[in-house]
Design brief:
Order of helices and strands: EHEHEEHH
Strand content: 15-25%
Oligomer: single chain
Helix content: 25-40%
Amino acid sequence: MGLRGCIEEPENGLYHKLLEVLAREFREHASGRKGGTQVFMTTHQPYFVDALDPREVWILEKGEDGFSTIRRASEDPLVNALVEEGLPLGGLWSSNYLDPRWEHAL
């Protein structure tokens, strides 16, 4: 069984230009192999999310029934297309593109 860890807001107090380095370090630590290390982080920092791939971002949302749902940012084709065009994922989050209640108009 692999090591699992949860880290709340690891970017607190870190200079914003180092957030990409922090994301890379966590990415390298999490092996992706079955039984390997798994890291969960929470953040409120769009600049940290900018350093992540949509497949690495999980969105938890509490429903009116009190239960949470979880999905990957990469499940939204529009988000994937915008990131491929060069828009930062954290900026999309700040603009409500990761919120399923937000209707995306093309």
